[in-house]
Write a structure and sequence with these properties.
By secondary structure, the chain is of the alpha/beta class. It is 46% helix and 13% strand. The strands form six sheets. Strands 1, 2, 3, 6, 7, 8 and 9 form a seven-stranded mixed β-sheet that branches. Helix 2 packs parallel to helix 3.
Length: 756
């Protein structure tokens, strides 16, 4: 037993292939126009999640241009727009506002360009991405901190913008009464009224902390201003990004010794120029590098750290903890702005509503074929759904916000009412719409939902890859997964066009008119257990099922990755890539989420045992106990896995936890393909030199993959979880990611590009 238990973690380690498990960074939610969850409040600069000066400038310009397209809400004594923050983004926005004749004001908590002023002396500035042309008088070029400040100061002097320095915003509230706009109050007590607000406050003010003893001592710093402050000291730098590397390099000529501690085995995140300079300094013994080390305690003249399995003490006079900065989440939450992957009371209520509807939906359609208590579960959950939806239905945000949101909500409400009417009339009145059970109408809704949201996906993400992928998913769902089993085959059967009753089609493929077996042409074992697990299994389905699950799918995964099936064929993936497209950044990250990824492997094991027992048990009278035992367990398998996890949890978690919870965590076919994916040629390649470590690729990954960690190491992404959805490739601001294959002679990029 101990030997078996020791094999399990080794198997999971083999499956993981040392995949990174980083978190997705938290940023405020914004739409494509830089508008936050509060209509009228816009966000630009670093808070959009892209830490590049060029993008900060361009986002400020774009935000003002988007505001110009909005309805005029001019009220006497109101500003047109109030800009919070006088960094590159805020100043660029101010210049654009002045050019267009807007009445505006800029509030700055410190002085203009304060963050850049606080950079270390001589810090190099990189004008990335090189191909981005900024439509503003503020031009970012490869230079140093001092030269950049000189250039920015000249632009600011030339344009003479209205700026109030030393005014830190305390609150932003909707104006009282019927007046449109906002009332902005600063800590000094001043009040301003504005139709629109643009937050360009950046994120560098809140430094990340290690959270260990002694971090608040006078000799522990979280920002480097002037390297000369550490003259003659033994200095420790903690971190592995550009800020930490640049700080360590700048200290080499002034400190007695420079030590850099980093939690990972190698430095991978910095820009290539910084990395090469750092490696040279380490080789020349100018910097002591401590990889795989974590700080445990700061003391007045030393630090205690753990490197590998050993704990040691280093003599250190001063320490610089440069592990990045946090977005001002508490301030944004105070304003009421929605933060990605965070949940408020309305969303929790929405989750309860959707989850109860999923219970009602799946137990309702199953109640016509299963135990009587299913209908009681459906009725109870239906009542909970109706009660919890009242606030949603009468909320102004539901139908009178963005046009797409209104259109989407109307569709979802109509779909819910349609199924409710179909189920209740069939169950309690005996009226079957079109003479069909609710399961038929469920399939209708499933298909129309993929069509409806698929069209929207193509509209907002019109890459050639997404167009082809989405159209393929729509066609597969409508024809082989709806029209064929539900309409075409029953029609042909009724007309006697499928051959004689003792013919091949009606004995081997659809025995006794079991047209539902047509789903098995697309949905393979063990996602569709009925392909191989069936008391009346025929030679056709036995052969086809084995060829599909252990022949065709392994070949597709080997050539194109797991996503060849999950992202292009499967109906679960079809719904996730369409209905779930807007909720990609809801996928949980963190240790618990990564542990749950292995749940599907256990479900796969149970499915395999049940199927083998069924096939052996039905092969002869002598083995009937195996078949009886398998059938007894299969009842619970269907309830827990198919109905519970695949149906209720899979759909009920859509708007709260992303559309691929089932695919990532529990699907046994996905788990089988994880094994195949270990041998796949498919990779996502990255141009490491251009990666800016913005974390956007990780945050939009439907499968919770830490894509950024692969990218900034230049490691070809070989995660078994990838479903080729292309979200990371499409959303990468510097377009450093590409689909391809790892061949013997090196990497080969796909001909079908995933970007525009």
């Amino acid at each position: 037993m101990k030997g078996l238990l020791s094999i399990v973690p080794k198997y999971f380690d083999w499956l993981n292939n040392n995949a990174p498990q980083g978190e997705a960074e938290k940023y405020p939610e914004t739409n494509s126009e830089f508008e936050s969850s509060i209509p009228g409040i816009y966000i630009s600069g670093d808070l959009t999640g892209i830490p590049l000066l060029k993008y900060s400038v361009q986002s400020g310009v774009s935000a003002i241009r988007n505001i110009l397209q909005k309805p005029k809400k001019k009220v006497k004594d109101n500003l047109d727009v109030l800009i919070v923050g006088a960094g590159p983004s805020g100043i660029a926005a101010g210049i654009e506002a002045k050019k267009n004749g807007l009445d505006f004001l800029i509030l700055e908590a410190n002085l203009p360009f304060h963050t850049i002023t606080s950079y270390p002396k001589g810090k190099p500035i990189f004008a990335e991405p090189s191909e981005l042309e900024v439509d503003s008088p503020i031009q970012i070029k490869d230079t140093t901190k001092e030269d950049l400040l000189g250039s920015l100061g000249s632009v600011l002097k030339k344009h003479k913008l209205p700026i109030l320095n030393g005014e830190k915003v305390e609150s932003i509230l909707p104006s009282k009464g019927s007046e449109p706009g906002f009332t902005i109050q600063t800590e000094s007590g001043k009040k301003f009224h504005s139709s629109y607000v643009l937050l360009a406050i950046g994120k560098s003010g809140d430094s990340r902390r290690l959270g260990i003893p002694g971090e608040d001592q006078e000799n522990v710093f979280h920002r480097l201003i002037d390297p000369k402050d550490f003259q003659g000291q033994n200095t420790l730098v903690v971190g592995g990004g550009d800020s930490a590397i640049e700080a360590a390099l700048s200290l080499v000529d002034v400190s007695s010794s420079v030590t850099l501690s980093y939690r990972e085995s190698e430095i991978s995140r910095p820009k290539e120029e910084n990395k090469l300079r750092f490696q040279k300094a380490v080789q020349e013994n100018k910097i002591q590098f401590l990889p795989n080390s974590t700080l445990e305690k700061f003391e007045p003249k030393q630090v205690r750290l753990k490197q590998g399995s050993k704990t040691k003490t280093e003599k250190i006079d001063s320490s610089l903890v440069l592990i990045g900065s946090e977005a001002p989440i508490s301030f944004l939450k105070k304003l009421g702005i929605k933060i990605r992957s965070s949940f408020n009371s309305k969303e929790v209520l929405g989750f309860v509503s959707l989850f109860s509807f999923a219970l009602f939906l799946y137990f309702g359609k199953a109640s016509f074929y299963a135990a009587y208590w299913y209908s009681w579960v459906a009725l109870g959950s239906g009542i909970v759904f109706a009660v919890s939806s009242i606030q949603f239905l009468f909320s102004k945000e539901t139908f009178f916000a963005w046009r797409w949101r209104t259109f989407k909500n109307l569709y979802l409400v109509s779909a819910a009412l349609y199924f409710s009417g179909v189920y209740l009339s069939a169950k309690y009145i005996g009226f079957y719409l079109f003479g069909k059970y609710p399961s038929f109408h469920y399939t209708v809704l499933y298909s129309t939902t993929i069509l409806f949201f698929g069209i929207r996906r193509i509209w907002v993400r019109p890459t050639q890859y997404i167009k082809l992928q989405t159209i393929t998913l729509i066609l597969i769902q409508i024809f082989p997964l709806f029209l064929l089993p539900e309409i075409i085959l029953p029609f042909l059967g009724d007309k006697g066009l499928l051959g004689p009753s003792n013919g091949f089609l009606l004995t081997q493929v659809f025995p006794d008119g079991a047209y539902w077996k047509a789903y098995g042409f697309i949905l393979a074992w063990p996602l569709n257990m009925g392909v191989l697990y069936d008391g009346g299994i025929t030679t056709f389905w036995l052969v086809y099922g084995f060829l599909m699950s252990f022949g065709l799918i392994p070949y597709l995964v080997y050539k194109y990755g797991k996503g060849a099936y999950c992202g292009w064929i499967c109906s679960c993936g079809g719904l996730a890539e369409t209905l779930g497209d807007e909720y990609r950044n809801r996928m949980p990250h963190g240790k618990l989420a990564y542990k749950l990824e292995h749940s599907g492997q256990w479900i796969l094991l149970i499915a395999a045992i049940l199927t083998i027992a069924k096939l052996i048990g039905s092969s002869g009278q002598f083995f009937w106990p195996l078949e009886f035992g398998a059938d007894s367990v299969k009842v619970y398998y269907d309830l827990i896995v198919d109905l519970g996890l695949g149906g209720v949890v899979g759909v009920g978690a859509y708007f709260m936890f992303s559309g691929r919870i089932w695919c990532r965590m529990f699907c046994p076919l996905s788990a089988l393909m994880h094994i195949y994916a270990k041998f796949s040629k498919f990779r996502i390649f990255s141009e490491k030199k251009r990666c800016i470590s913005c974390n956007i690729c990780t945050s939009v990954c439907h499968q919770g993959i830490d894509v950024m960690n692969y990218a900034n190491k230049g490691r070809p992404m070989d995660s078994i979880q990838c479903v080729r959805c292309s979200a990371c490739v499409v959303n990468c601001p510097t377009q450093v990611l590409s689909f391809g294959k790892l061949e013997k002679n090196g990497q080969v990029l796909d001909r079908l590009k995933a970007v525009l």
